[in-house]
Amino acid sequence: FVLTQASTFANRVMRETTDPTPTSHVRNAYHIALNRTPSSKEIDWCVALHQRHAERYRQSASTAVQADHKALTHVCHMLFNTNEFLYLP
Asked: Does residue 36 sit in helix, strand or coil?
């Protein structure tokens, strides 16, 4: 269920982001999920995570768009598992 929701959320992030770069996707995902701008360290970490997964998917015969979506799904799944997303302050 969570992986399906992460994929659906990644679709939304990709659809609502005007600049199709991993950095813009990360910023938009944080804004939607956590209602805040990510720190530069969070952006760097998430973009690195995205790039590692995208490269792995590109090597396994996924198209670039499919690889980016799957990689963004991993980033969204990670956001869903943060304490900040799960618990109200």
From this structure: coil
